[in-house]
Specification:
The protein is mostly helical and 237 residues long. The chain has one domain: Rhodopsin 7-helix transmembrane proteins (Rhopdopsin 7-helix transmembrane proteins, Up-down Bundle), CATH 1.20.1070. The protein contains ten helices and four strands; from the N terminus they run ααααββααααααββ. It has a two-stranded antiparallel sheet with strand order 1-2. Helix 5 (74-110) packs antiparallel against helix 6 (116-149).
Length: 237
Amino acid sequence: MFTSLFCTSFATIDQYFISNRSIRIRQLSHLSFARIIILVSVFLWCSINIPVLFLYNVYPRNNGTSTVCTVYSPAWSFYYTYFQSLALLCLVPLSIFIIFGILTRRNLHSVRQFHRSISRQMTKMILLQATAMGLSLFIATVQIIYQSVTMNIQKDALRNAQDNIFNTVANLLTYVTYFGDFYIYLYSSKSLRQALKRIIFNHETTQSITNTMFSTQNQNGTITNRNKVQPIEKNNS
């Protein structure tokens, strides 16, 4: 979850690198550099979750008839709730996305070659992505904090049912961050919608077939290239 989320944020930083007028900054947008960042990111997120392997355990429930796999460490609960969930899952990626999205729009606005429609399209994408990401991550973070704060509170059946509904809705909304970008790009970009239509209805395939050089076999069994360029014969006179 952290890797996917921060790769989206890294893509926003890469857009800022590409659109910058400084050659030195544009050179940071390199495939090998991106691979290193992703590998370091994966290693980092795996490392910070190593304590989960040792802290989780199976404990009996209060009713004594079933068990639950959880953590009863106050230090880990505070770390997971306010550092991992609030900071790393919500505030940091959302801040990166908004800050570098605004900087990218400023870069595009400073270049005169870019049409105004591109700047408006970029602004629309940034606003929609920030709204979708902020909504999904904020609700998920609130749910995690609420669950941690009310962990030791005695709840009746109605309260447990309400908490389960809230938990389910919050978990489902987290998926908006992962699949929402495609629909946002599709809604914001007319050229992307047209390209998608051509791909779906095989317009590009039909066009490529008609434009490519094709060959047919003549009566003698030899191959004749119909689109072959013929040399111009010089007039000796």
